[in-house]
Every structure is written in C-alpha cells, then in structure tokens.
C-alpha cells in the first residue's frame, strides 16, 4: 500500500513536471518566427551554365499502349499512385519529334486538393542533351493554371543541376484521362 502511494505520488509529480516542461516549450515555440532569412555569401561555384528547355509531356493512360499505369490506390483519389514512362516531344502533337521520356511516378498525396507528389526523371534522347537527365521532385496541383516544380539534380550535361519547371496543361481528355502538359524548364548546371 505504502509502495503504491509513493509510486502514485512519484508519477503524479513526474507528470506535473512533464506538463510544466511541455507548456514552457509550447510558449517558446509560439514565440519563434516561422522563417529566418540568411543572406547568401557565395554563389554555387559548380553551377556555371543556365539552360532553358521547352517540351510537351504526354501522359497516356488509355488505349492499347498506355505510358502511365496506376500501380496502387483507389481511382483518382487520395493515394492513387501511377508509374510513368511518358514521351516528351518538341511539339504538342503526340507524333512530333520525341526529345526524351519522363520516367518515374506521381501520386495523389493530398486529401484537400488535387496535388500530386511528382518523383520523375526527364531522360533526354535528343540533340546535345541526348543521354543527360534531370530529376524532378515536387508538388503539382494539377488544377492550377500554372504549377512550379523543383529540379533537384541531374546527370550528364546536367551535373549539379538545380532549377525549376513551369508547367501548364495544354489538353486534358475528360473521357480518357489522357493529358498533354507543357514544360518550361530553367536549370543551372555545371
Ligand atoms: C542518342 O545517343 C544514343 C547512344 O549514344 C545513340 O544511339 C542515339 O542515336 C542518339 N540519338 C540521337 C537522336 O542523337
Ligand atoms: C512556357 O513558354 C511558352 C513559350 O514561351 C509560353 O507560351 C507559356 O505560357 C509558358 N508556360 C508556362 C507555364 O510558363
């Protein structure tokens, strides 16, 4: 009984201390600013060139030869995950010159809007960037007129790549789900 009492008192005082600590850290946290700005002192010495790329991304989910396939999750709802090997072309027409492919996956990662998580490599097969690739990792709210996606890296001519892609949907077929999306990429690289 005595042991029970002491251990109850001990656990009561412990929880009081923990509660006090929690409220102290909560008030410290509320006083902390959301962001800090630090002035950059040196530019990245490895990113010397800037390149702009323009192409169209064809997300083909219908027909006999889809280039985008749902791998898990419900249909067009939170959790839908699609793996792609989509052609990238010079022009809006699907039959126009292929400049590369978008390989990777996108997933509906929002419960509140139509935002995708994009984890994709643009693998180029055309001109001076044949064999080079850019990696995209970002959020893409497909219902926004213009979206911005970070370019987080690259290989080949695009070593040390960093940049962004501005993208807008050119065509979306409500019946089939096929889409053509324009990409304007700006990238700094070695
Ligand atoms: C791209 O490079 C590959 C491998 O080096 C080569 O086979 C192909 O012909 C090249 N394509 C173009 C369009 O230059
Ligand atoms: C991409 O560039 C084209 C041509 O300059 C322009 O018409 C289009 O609005 C741009 N799209 C985005 C999303 O920046």
Automatic annotation (TrEMBL):
<protein>
    <submittedName>
        <fullName>Uncharacterized protein</fullName>
    </submittedName>
</protein>
């Amino acid at each position: 009984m005595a042991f029970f009492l002491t251990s109850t008192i001990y656990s009561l005082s412990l929880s009081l201390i923990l509660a006090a600590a929690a409220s102290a850290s909560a008030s410290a946290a509320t006083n902390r600013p959301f962001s800090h700005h630090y002035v950059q002192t040196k530019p990245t010495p490895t990113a010397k060139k800037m390149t702009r790329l323009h192409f169209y991304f064809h997300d083909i989910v219908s027909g006999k030869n889809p280039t985008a396939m749902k791998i898990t999750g419900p249909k067009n709802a939170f959790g839908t995950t699609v793996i792609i090997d989509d052609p990238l072309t010079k022009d809006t027409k699907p039959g126009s010159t292929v400049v590369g492919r978008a390989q990777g996956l996108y997933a509906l990662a929002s419960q509140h809007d139509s935002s995708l998580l994009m984890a994709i490599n643009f693998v180029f097969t055309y001109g001076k960037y044949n064999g080079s690739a850019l990696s995209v990792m970002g959020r893409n709210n497909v219902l926004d007129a213009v979206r911005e996606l970070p370019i987080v890296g690259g290989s080949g001519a695009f070593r040390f790549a960093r940049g962004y892609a501005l993208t807008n949907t050119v065509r979306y077929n409500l019946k089939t789900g096929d889409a053509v999306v324009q990409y304007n990429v700006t990238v700094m690289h070695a």
